[in-house]
Design brief:
The chain is mostly helical. It has a single domain, classed as ABC transporter involved in vitamin B12 uptake, BtuC, CATH 1.10.3470. Helices cover 75% and strands 0% of the residues. It starts with a helix and ends in a 14-residue tail after the last helix. The relative contact order is 0.18.
């Protein structure tokens, strides 16, 4: 086995896994604080990327202006979702909230295409998709510079979110809401305001994910399916853990690439598409709460 090629595949998979983790974090943020599995996260990723390129194409502005404008749009979208759709459904069964996010996903997808069109757009970020010269020269390993920079951006965003949760007043309130809604209300934490902030943050996370995946694969409807790849990540890492989303993303990214390269020739093509779900299914049988999830014991 060529050890350089093995590390090339492994590093590429780990870098892809960081981007999977970014999408998964959007799910974790909402689920941790409100108990809602936001099925519309993939649609929000698509909406963010399409809005950014739509602003660039329609108004002729630079990407450096389009990104902050889109960030404002996504924050407003997140707040609107919480206020208009989910706030009236507070205290409803979880399945009701889940179905609401499914309907919301189709609405957001349609709204994005109604506003900006349904054709495929090219998104040019100022990051070259060329081999990283240092690794090529010193280790003869080909790793995309785009993947490295994208992983770095994701790392910075995750660090910022971690600091938000641990060092700020809003972050402490978010943790309190996540632990116990009723207790948080009892001590005067404005629950609905905290949820609005959380949805706004989830919208901005969707923007970063949409820009990175849109630059790699083109801004198109297929971006909505990125959210499906986040499901195995969540199963492995746990639905309530940001560190779990990161570790789960790394495991899924590395394993799918290695499986495609080394097992693909033996079992046929397309292994990269379904292997993560098989891995997640097997993991459910052993540890259904995920690596970083808490075990829930219910007494009957």
């Amino acid at each position: 086995m060529n050890i350089n090629f093995f590390f090339e595949v492994l590093i590429g998979g780990l870098l892809s896994g960081v981007m999977y983790a970014l999408v998964a974090i959007g799910f974790v943020l909402i689920y941790k604080a409100s108990g809602v599995f936001n099925f519309a996260q993939g649609a929000m990723v698509f909406f963010a990327a399409l809005t950014c390129v739509g602003i660039i194409d329609k108004f002729g502005v630079s990407i450096w202006l389009a990104i902050p404008l889109t960030m404002v749009v996504m924050a407003l979208l997140g707040v609107a979702i919480e206020r208009v759709v989910l706030r009236p459904l507070v205290n409803q069964p979880e399945i009701t909230l889940f179905m609401a996010t499914i309907g919301l996903a189709f609405f957001i997808e349609g709204l994005a295409q109604l506003m900006w069109g349904s054709q495929v757009h090219k998104l040019d970020l100022p990051i070259e998709d060329v081999p990283l010269q240092y690794l090529l020269d010193h280790f003869n390993i080909i790793v995309s510079q785009f993947d490295v920079v994208a992983a770095g951006i994701c790392g910075v965003l995750v660090t910022a979110l971690a600091l938000l949760f641990s060092k700020t007043k809003v972050g402490r309130a978010l943790r309190a809401v996540a632990d116990d809604h009723q207790a948080a209300l009892a001590v005067g934490i404005p629950l609905q305001r905290i949820w609005a902030v959380l949805w706004a943050v989830a919208g901005m996370v969707a923007l970063v994910a949409g820009l990175l995946w849109g630059a790699r694969n083109g801004v198109q409807f297929a971006l909505t399916f990125i959210a499906l790849k986040a499901l195995p990540v969540l199963i492995l890492g746990g639905f309530t853990s940001v560190p779990g989303a990161i570790v789960g993303g790394l495991i899924i990214g590395a394993s799918e690439k290695l499986a495609e390269v080394y097992l693909g020739p033996m079992v046929g093509g397309g292994l990269e598409g379904w292997f993560p779900y098989v891995l997640a299914l097997l993991f459910l049988l052993v540890r259904p709460e995920g690596l970083f999830g808490e075990k829930i014991i219910r007494r009957i």
